[in-house]
């Protein structure tokens, strides 16, 4: 599967579920701040996806953990909330195998049976639309927040760092 296939799978899923969204093509942008500026969105509207490996006491699970781009993940809290004892970011090889995307281009949807989707509830509390790279660093989707929650059905897990 290529990133084009990820984009195609994503837009097909959104269309089949009558989601309200739009696609924006833009110059390559890897950092959340850069891409928000290019998209014309707030940094907090960005849905940042982190592929993590949660382990502990016989527990092993890959997780696509999604949170607002203006927040930082607390991986220890994520592990605890999922049922493990520790979590780490997956290797670039694991990320590629599980998402068919490069770092920074991962949409907040899991298309792999071994990749559990979780989202921090703050993602749904502040903005009517979420923005994310759609399998490519040059293509973004801006999606209605309620449609994302309805279609992706992530498990809601508090895992952002709280000051």
Automatic annotation (TrEMBL):
InterPro entries with a match to the protein in the record: PROXY (IPR044786), YbaK/aa-tRNA-synt-asso_dom_sf (IPR036754), YbaK/aa-tRNA-synth-assoc-dom (IPR007214)
SUPFAM superfamilies listed in its UniProt record: YbaK/ProRS associated domain
Entry-linked Gene3D superfamilies: YbaK/aminoacyl-tRNA synthetase-associated domain
Molecular functions per Gene Ontology: aminoacyl-tRNA deacylase activity
Segments forming domain YbaK/aminoacyl-tRNA synthetase-associated: 26-150
Record Pfam families: tRNA_edit
UniProt-listed CDD domains: YeaK (cd04336)
Protein name from the UniProt record: YbaK/aminoacyl-tRNA synthetase-associated domain-containing protein
Organism: Photorhabdus asymbiotica subsp. asymbiotica (strain ATCC 43949 / 3105-77)
Lineage: Bacteria, Pseudomonadati, Pseudomonadota, Gammaproteobacteria, Enterobacterales
């Amino acid at each position: 599967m290529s990133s084009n296939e990820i984009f195609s799978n994503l837009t097909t899923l959104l269309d089949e579920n009558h989601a309200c969204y739009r696609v924006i093509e833009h110059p390559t942008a890897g950092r959340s701040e850069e891409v928000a500026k290019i998209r014309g969105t707030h940094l907090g509207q960005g849905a940042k996806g982190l592929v993590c490996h949660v382990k502990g006491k016989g527990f092993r699970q890959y997780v696509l953990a999604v949170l607002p781009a203006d927040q930082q993940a607390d991986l220890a809290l994520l592990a605890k909330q999922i049922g493990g004892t520790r979590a780490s970011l997956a290797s670039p090889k694991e990320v590629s195998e599980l998402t068919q995307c490069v770092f920074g281009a991962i949409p907040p949807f899991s298309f792999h049976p071994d990749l559990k989707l979780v989202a921090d509830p703050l993602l749904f509390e502040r903005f009517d639309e979420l923005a994310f790279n759609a399998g490519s660093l040059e293509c973004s989707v801006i999606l209605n927040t309620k449609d994302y929650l309805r279609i992706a059905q992530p498990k809601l897990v508090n895992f952002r760092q709280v000051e």
